[in-house]
Amino acid sequence: MSLMKSSKKRQVVIAGAGLIGSTMALALASKGFDVTVFDGTTEKDRINRNKGRTYALSRASKNLFSNLGVWNEKKLNVSPIENIILSTRKDSNDPIRHLVEFKKESPAFDPSSYMIEDFYLRKVLSSELNKNTNIQVIDSTEVIQDETNSFETKISLSDNSLISTEILIISDGRDSGFARRLNKKFFKKNYNQVAIVGNLSHKNDHNCTAHQLFLNGGPLAILPLQGNRSTFVWSLPVEVGNKLSESTDEIFTSHLKENIGDILTNASLIDEKKMFPLYLKFLRDSIDIRKVFIGDSALAIHPLAGQGLNIGLRDVASLVDVLFKGKKLGLDLGSFDLLKKYETWRSFDKISIATYTDLINSLFSNDNIYLKALRELGMNTIDNSKLLKNFFVKEAAGEYGNVPELLKN
Q: What is the mean pLDDT of residues 119-137?
């Protein structure tokens, strides 16, 4: 009993103060919940670790930030994506051939997606968290252990304090320590690929156009940032990627320039490039007793569709929806039935996006002559069909299926 007496009670506890954990806290606080967020690192560590990272944000995700009062294009240094061009190329001697172009639907619509830089988004979220009286953020503090009973979860923290809560939301990244500790089962597929990512400055104007170039080794995305700057995400077989990543900036840049042709002129690297392994990692069961996994800790996918952050934000909006309705009905927030509602809602979307990115990657990181013919035929069909194009634009905008309230305009 003494454990219970000394533990402070909070309505909701979130493990992980990354982009998804922070957004989750703000979304819950906007619905009147009182929230404690803790993270094993400091804010400074999180900013440095993610330096130079960028994200493609769907229109639905932008709606979420607008609804939470944090969407400010100037402060966030946002670059809209007005056009998307998919092209293919055998090698640097082969001309770039356009397969499909997705233009902005009409001036009446917002763009289907935006490019946003980690640094600015983190800064804005952090200042909102600090202002919010319903939110308490505890840095440099980790969960040592947790015990769950039929009323609450009791959490022992690394600073020797105890906290108890009805529900623990876990957002501690793709190598989730919680998932390991709880012995959660994953479905994992290794792509034997790495992604090299970085930012470029260039002479020409990118005209708010995103390019996805399907090369022999794997897809290369060029995405517009504010000013004459762009982000690249290059997926390559492990050996080729390792070799390229270790090469000097000059050698790497000239290799990159050969592949992107005249898409960007006079391109040069800003900051250093980074490399990470590519795999699909899927938590078979994203809920546990009084616990729910969201964001990368529940699903990590291939970056080629640029949907990683958006999936996490859909998790946020759906879970807030379920918890808010549960709270209005006076239900126990950590009850299995309530969390099961969330999981059922999210599972179809997650399975379909994981399957879709997996399929596209297999189709486009392959030199098989029949597959090449098939994908070019498929792209040609899409390019000539307004209906199919609209479907893909809606998909990219995140406006498909049962959309949670917070993602609506």
A: 96
pTM of the model: 0.91
The pLDDT, as a whole number, for residue 105 is 65
With CA atoms as reference, report the closest residue to 228 among 200, 255, 250: 200
Between 115 and 398, the higher pLDDT residue: 115
Count of the separate structural domains present in the chain:
1
| CATH number of the domain to which 346 belongs | 3.50.50.60
Q: Are 6 and 164 in contact (CB under 8 A)?
A: no
Evaluate the CA torsion angle 149, 332, 324, 34 in order and state its sign.
Answer: negative
The arithmetic mean of pLDDT across residues 223-247, rounded, is 95
User: How many angstroms separate the CA atoms of 385 and 381, rounded?
Assistant: 6
Q: Which two tokens stand for residue 73?
A: 């294009």
Question: Would you say 404 and 317 are in contact if contact means Cβ atoms under 8 Å apart?
Answer: yes
Helix axes 308-328, 59-67, angle to 10 degrees: 40
Q: What spatial distance separates the first Cα and last Cα of the chain, rounded to whole Å? A: 48
Strands (E), 47-151: 54-58, 79-81, 83-88, 97-103, 113-117, 135-138, 143-148
Give residues with Cβ within 8 angstroms of 188, minimum separation 6: 279, 280, 281, 282
Q: Tell me: the pLDDT tens digits for 360-386?
A: 777 766 666 666 677 677 777 777 777
Please compute the mean of the pLDDT values over residues 333-353 and round it to a whole number.
91
Domain carrying residue 97: 2-407
- Distance, in Å, from the CA atom of 135 to the CA atom of 312, rounded to the nearest integer, reads 20
**Tokens of residue 268, six digits:** 């040069």
Any residues with CB less than 8 A from the CB of 314 and at least 6 apart, and which?
Answer: 60, 61, 346, 349, 398, 404, 407
Across 140-155, average pLDDT: 90
Which residue bears the tokens 């130079």? 52
Contact indicator for 74, 124 with CB cutoff of 8 Å? no
Residues whose CB falls within 8 Å of the CB of residue 362, separated by 6 or more in sequence, listed in order: none
- Count, in order, helices (H) and strands (E) of the chain: 13, 19
- Burial of 364 (C-beta count, 10 Å sphere; 0-12/13-18/19+): buried
Q: Is residue 282 classed as helix, strand or coil in its secondary structure? A: strand
Res 218 pLDDT > 90: no
